[in-house]
Write a structure and sequence with these properties.
By secondary structure, the chain is mostly helical. Helices cover about 75% and strands about 0% of the residues. The longest helix is centred in the first third of the chain and has 31 residues. It is globular.
């Protein structure tokens, strides 16, 4: 798998250094682990605060999910231009602190009886904006730590951490919600962001100064350059489209998932945590095997093949029922997550290799805007469908939608390639 992404012999020695011996990458990885555990706890706990504590309707829960992802539409594009004008590490640390403070506001309000859905919407929106900046800076910072030949391995390690958090986090969240209640469980997320910031502060790698001309160009021109880079590239363009379709239906599922598991499958918070943890196990397997699979079938081929082979298993979601049949939801999710992680490692590593360093933030922001901007729309659609026709119907629509994810890839030049083109593209 490393063949198309490796550098010439000049960087070979550095490429062969085990990532486990790379101090600053270990710190980045540790920070990611801390924040991801907290995030996964909140993905279970925050909707449960709304559903169990505030008796929110299906539409209100969908609106909460939309608020969490609306930032990709609101600030997605300018965030990339701003990140390219700043050093990325301070952005990572600062946004961790902002997210910690926002999450820490929930338990006191719940304990004093003043918590409302409006506050939850605001918390979701603030953390969403901070997450946009964090994610763009994070993807743009990794190439400053690792040579190009190690980006696939580095992204694989980060995906492994994220997948492990998706396994451990929901189970931990379910137990915490049953022991101390959903609002107090949210404190784990705040603590995770603080621990992440402390790890990141210890990184010593000297980050290059932003390009000097970045300060002179207007924000509009800088954003336009990132848009043009993505939209004029035939492979980036189709990857953005396919990822956008996947994210639309993923957000639709996320917006109705808690209502479906609580009110249709009649699961307790602990059982919900175990169900979501089992589902995320497929992500770990995908992260650990992505490199070997791509080496065997090709780096370009694995992008469309991973979605084509695993997408149909989404049909198991609406087939889940009370009792043992609830396991169908976890099984379907595990297989779909496996394909999603393999897909993400391949396409993110390709993007990082292809893009000039001074354009990374804007390229990642444009991809996030195009692909993740679909998420608030999907969340709103899920809330409306669940409110009007029931949660199970909304899950059926989501499952059918996942069957369409590979279509843009299959109709593109990507289908005729075995491996992705390597090297940095010109502008």
């Amino acid at each position: 798998m490393t063949r198309s992404f490796s550098l010439p012999s000049k960087g070979a020695r550095e490429d062969e250094t085990p990532l486990s011996r790379h101090r600053d990458f270990r710190l980045l990885l540790s920070g990611a682990a801390a924040s991801q555990i907290g995030t996964q706890v909140t993905l279970v706990a925050l909707p449960l605060v709304a559903v169990l504590g505030l008796k929110a309707s299906a539409f209100e829960v969908g609106l909460l999910t939309a608020a969490e992802t609306a930032a990709f539409l609101l600030v997605g594009l300018p965030a990339g231009a701003w990140v390219d004008r700043m050093r990325r590490l301070p952005v990572l640390i600062g946004t961790d602190v902002v997210r910690a403070l926002a999450m820490a506001s929930v338990p006191p309000a719940a304990m004093t009886g003043t918590l409302t859905m409006v506050q939850l919407y605001l918390v979701a929106l603030v953390t969403g904006v901070a997450t946009v900046f964090f994610d763009i800076a994070h993807q743009s910072y990794l190439p400053a730590l690792l040579p190009k030949g190690r980006l696939v391995s580095g992204n694989g390690a980060l995906e492994t951490v994220r997948s492990c958090a998706q396994v451990a986090g929901p189970g931990l969240a379910g137990g915490l919600v049953q022991l101390v209640g959903a609002p107090l469980a949210v404190l784990v997320d705040a603590a995770g962001y603080i621990v992440s910031a402390l790890f990141l502060r210890r990184i010593r790698t000297a980050e290059p100064h932003p390009a000097a001309d970045g300060e002179r160009r207007s924000l509009r021109a800088a954003i336009g350059e990132g848009l043009a880079f993505v939209l004029r590239h035939p492979l980036l363009r189709v990857i953005a489209l396919s990822t956008g379709v996947a994210n639309f239906f993923s957000a639709l599922l996320l917006s109705v998932q808690t209502v479906f598991l609580v009110r249709v499958l009649d699961l307790s918070p602990g059982a919900i945590g175990l169900t979501l943890s089992g589902a995320a196990a497929g992500g770990i397997l995908g992260a650990l095997s992505a490199g070997r699979i791509a080496a065997a079938v090709g780096q370009a081929r694995i992008i469309w093949l991973s979605t084509l082979a695993t997408g149909p298993f989404a049909l198991l979601w609406p087939l889940a029922a009370t009792g043992p049949a609830a396991a169908l939801f976890a099984l379907g999710s595990a297989i779909v997550f496996f394909g999603a992680v393999v897909y993400n490692i391949a396409q993110v590593s390709f993007r990082q290799t292809l893009c000039p360093p001074d354009l990374l933030g804007r390229m990642n922001a444009t991809m996030r805007f195009l692909a993740w901007g679909a998420m608030p729309l999907g969340a709103l659609a899920g809330g409306v469908l669940a409110q009007s026709f029931g949660a199970r119907t909304a899950v059926w629509v989501c499952a059918a939608g996942f069957l369409t994810v590979p279509l843009p890839l299959l109709l593109s030049p990507l289908r005729r390639l075995r491996d992705l083109p390597s090297g940095t593209a010109g502008r």
